[in-house]
Amino acid sequence: MSDGKTAGAQDVMVELTERGISIRLPGSHDPVIWPYGALSTSEPLTQHAIDALVTYANQPGATLFVPGPRFARSLATPAPQLTASAERWRSARPWLWATIALIAVAIAISLTDLSPARTMAMMLPDEARQSMGRHMVTAMSQGHRLCETADGRAALDKLTAKLSKAAKTESDFRVVVVDRMLVNAFATPGENIVLTRGLLEKANGVDEIAGVLAHEMGHGIERHPETGFIRAVGLTAAAELFTGGGGTLGSLGVLLLQFSYSREAESEADDHALRILRDAEISAKGLAEFFIRISNKGQLQESDPGNLLSTHPVTQDRLAKALRQGGYKLQPALSAKDWRALKSICGASDKVQVPKSE
Amino acid sequence: MAGNAITDTPDGSTAGRQLELSWLSPIGMIGLSIANFIYRLFTLGIYDFWARTEVRKRLWSAIRLDGEPLVYTGTGKELFLGFIIVFGLVLLPMLLLSAGIILAFGPTSPVAQLFPLALYVFIFLLFGVAIYRAQRYRLLRTSWRGIRGSLDGNSWNYGWTYFWTFLLIPLTLGWIIPWRTTKLQTLITNDAMFGDREFSFKGDAGPLYGPFAMLWFGVFAIYVGASLVFAVAIAALQHTFGLDTLSPGGQLKPEIASIVTIGTLGIVAMAYLLYLLISAWYRARTINHFAKCTHFEGAQFKAKVTGAGLLWIDVTNILILLVGALLLIIPLSIAAVLIVAVANSIDATLLESLLGPDVKSRFAAISVPIAIFIMALSFTLLLPVTQARAMGYFIGHLSIEGPIALERIAQSTADQVSTGEGLAQAFDIDAF
């Protein structure tokens, strides 16, 4: 036995009594009693124990080491809290509670439709959102020029203004066309929308472009790009926490560019698109036809960052909703002349047939 | 209930006595490994802090000083809080700063590209600090006969030495390494205490330079030798096949190319094996030298580890980890194949009517990350077993020579820190 004041030790006589462990120091007649309830052992007692190191709560630092299996195995009977099974249950309990609490929180979040990322996205100041958006446009169009002709820009602005007015939002949308041949469109934070040259040139009419633009505006109105960004940061932080800082910091930039939208988000954007098209008196058939074309041809590339349509294939549901739309007065989205100007905003279409960098 | 007498010879003298250091192989390490693995799996890894603590408790109590176990008194909660603090003070600000810089300058701007580099330098500066603090926490949470250890010094001092000496390694072509490891070992050892008594490091890097020269020139010789063998082999090949080795395009013919590939791999493997042998030998010499330089009271440590012994432990430990991973991955793969086969044999519309639309893609979206998580974790399944083997080998070959007056060692007065090892955990650099 050691008193915990120095590293020296004394030999003692120990005995398991009704009141506790009785310890008789050499040269002393009155034994010291360590009650069973206040004991701890360095390791839980098992049937394989070959010795026991006992400490006593009321005498901090003091240790009683009893070699040999007999004492260790006998101690389990009067002090059952020291056994391995009791210890296992004690250590498992907080984890069980934490699991139950976690499940409860998860259920509460899913029932109340609470989204912390979305709440934060709604609170972002406009300057931050616009700065985010501009940088993401730059990143996504890297290595490709932005298309701009005076007539094309005028036509695009006309279409954007018409749809913005119908959308009845306070924010102004800025739309740019990137000289890339793949068919794609994406919304970035701060009401920025990017269309590709491929999308314009392969479109079967201006109504398709109007439909896609209205859909992307829907994402913008719902702040989906901002929400995706914040969620990516949050997920990275959570990954750091769970992996004990596995060095995911470096990949943050990559992650930020690769978020995609949920089915619900796509559906929300569709609902906005149909409302905008109705109020702008543009046929929703264009959007429906676009859906049919991309689902048949699979023209969208899955690996393309920020691809808003490929990761969530067009469902029959979405298509039916677009096709059902109708029963209102229709106007062409743009005049034939304006549509031609928009279509050739990147230059004459028939001259560049084969994409070089895709 | 019978009493149990301790049959140790009484020792009242203060002249000190020889202490016997021994390793009592812990039982149930495989069971503990499996239990820890299951807990970690279901808590997405958070249980790791508690798992480590459980392992340390077993390992510490396997170390016996005069038959009595060392006690690890740390808790999982302390490790967890330590990590949370580092997460809040270091990792989270770095993450937010990264996000902020990407927002402000754009993801492709030079600032955003250079920032991670600056981060890595900063993190590396913290590396030595983390090592020192982890060591301090472990010593503070280690006790024998109720007397605690401690590490009484400045972690930034150690961290800075660690940093600048590391930068000098390439500049000195590696020749600073013996001096550097000795310097760092000296700093830690001289700060270490057991109770109120100090450890001290008496010695220098001198005796390590002979073995290091062997290592350095050995590596050089291996490189030259491997190149020579390679050149001779190529020459022999050309001699045998003449100009036939080349196809009309000037490329090696496929059948010759495959011989060259296999030969190259063989030479590289042999060279690597030689390197492992010679570096294990150097490592053993370092450990033995450091033990000899470590003094406590009237005693001196003595280690008798060998290069072959270290290499054997390392290689078999890697094999044990591989076996552990395979034990998990093989049944998991079989289960995955079966599930896919069953799912494909059932009519798609029936499956969707039973389990809702897009059931396959939803199932894949959930199960693939889980499978990846399990696979990544599987290599640590038997980690506690390997840690016990490594520690057992070391303690089994370590002894304390000379008398220590135990009655003169009083309790430590060092502050008990309340959280542990956050930095080391964050950078994943602690061995046990």
Report a brief summary of the structure.
With about 350 residues, chain A is an alpha+beta fold. Chain A has 13 helices and ten strands. In chain A, the strands form three sheets. A four-stranded mixed β-sheet of chain A has the order 7-8-10-9.
Outline the fold blueprint:
The complex is a heterodimer of chains A (358) and B (432).
Chain A (H helix, E strand, L loop, with lengths): L12 E4 L4 E4 L7 E3 L4 E3 L9 E6 L6 E5 L1 H7 L8 H29 L3 H8 L2 H15 L5 E2 L2 H18 L6 E5 L6 E4 L3 E5 H6 L3 H16 L2 H20 L8 H5 L6 H17 L5 H13 L18 H9 L11 H8 L15
Parallel strand pairs in A: 8-10
Antiparallel strand pairs in A: 1-2, 2-3, 4-5, 5-6, 7-8, 9-10
Helix pairs in contact in A: 3-8, 5-7, 5-10, 5-13, 7-10, 7-11, 11-12
Chain B lengths: L3 E2 L11 E2 L2 E3 L5 H14 L5 H15 E3 L2 E2 L1 E2 L3 H30 L4 H31 L1 E3 L2 E5 L3 H17 L5 H15 E3 L2 E5 L4 H36 L12 H40 E3 L2 E5 L3 H39 L2 H8 L3 H20 L4 H14 L1 E4 L1 E2 L17 H6 L5
Antiparallel strand pairs in B: 2-14, 3-4, 4-5, 6-7, 7-8, 8-9, 9-10, 10-11, 11-12, 12-13
Helix pairs in contact in B: 1-2, 1-12, 2-3, 3-4, 4-5, 5-6, 7-8, 8-9, 9-11, 9-12
Structure description:
- The complex is a heterodimer of chains A (358) and B (432).
- Helix content of chain A is 48%, strand content 11%.
- Chain A has 13 helices and ten strands.
- In chain A, α3 packs across α8, α7 crosses α10 and α11 packs antiparallel against α12.
- The radius of gyration of chain A is 35 Å and the shape is rod-shaped.
- The C terminus of chain A is likely disordered.
- Chain B contains 13 helices and 14 strands.
- Chain B is globular and about 85 Å long.
- In chain B, α9 runs antiparallel to α12.
- In chain B, strands 6-7-8-9-10-11-12-13 form an eight-stranded antiparallel sheet. Chain B has a three-stranded antiparallel sheet with strand order 3-4-5.
- Chains A and B meet through β1, β5, β6, α1 and α2 of A and β1, α2, β5, α3 and α4 of B.
